[in-house]
Design a protein that fits this description.
Blueprint (H helix, E strand, L loop, with lengths): L2 H19 L7 H21 L4 H18 L8 H14 L3 H24 L3 H6 L1 H12 L12 H21 L6 H23 L7 H29 L6 H18 L1 H13 L9 H36 L1
Length: about 325
Amino acid sequence: MREASFVKQNKEKWILFEKALRGNIKINPDDLASYYIQLTNDLSYAQTYYPESKTLTYLNSLTSEAHQKIYTTKKESKNKIKEFWMFEFPLFFRQYHKTLLYTFLFFIAAILVGSVSTLNDDSFARLILGDQYVNTTIENIANGEPMAIYKSGSQMGSFLGITINNIRVGLIAYAFGILFSAGTIYILFSNGIMLGSFITFFYKYGLLEKTSTIWLHGTIEIWVIIIAGCAGLVMGNSFMFPKTYSRRVAFMKGAKDGLKIVVSTIPFFIIAGFIEGFITRYGGQMPSFLAYSIIFLSFSLVVYYYIAYPIILNRKNAAFIHRT
């Protein structure tokens, strides 16, 4: 390859890396490390084919600067946690929007399977939801309190128990990705079928509107299970589709990226647990406007943070690069 073509092909990447090193733009550490690996590869190529060129001098200088920045121990920022959720994670997560879309579509397909099956087979809900839950709910419906099951237990006890269980489910959805993504797909499929069966079960009793009580906490809860599933697929797919990396390196990167995604869901699981423990039990007495406002705000929060905000931040970075 001619030197001019080599420079033209990689110039934008080098400039981006240089700006990130000097703090002109924000970039997550994993991407920074990935760019560094690419930079060293470019340096080796230039040393072989363009010795004593200005391109080699530039790459030598940039690599030395990068090595100092990446490997020199420095004091941790006091705002590291804030920076992770406000900047580092959203910038990082943008690359996995397509995986999130596939996860969402698969979950919707599982909901449809659960819904159609329950609609056509009265015993399916018992198979999926369990006899005890179905019998208790039917009894509550007869007593005029279809959602009474969500009023049981203390508020704080329910909050802690529900939150811990939800986080456990999220971690399992991620961890099962190690089974070549099949484990994560199973978790998503079983949860999707359960949700579809649950909704259709109430529909068959003419109580579909009552499920709005469940969506008070379920809006966030279901979304973050999907996102945790996305984390599992990121890990599993990294081994099956390593791209330009070796399988070992690709898997290590995928496992780390997936863990970062599932960690981001913890505050949302806590919010969902709080709503279920302290608010859902009053859903039946709550004005419809207030209930649907909570559902809408919950939906907007998750969609904004995981979809809209990463796009906005990445566009700002790209606009800054073009301006400078």
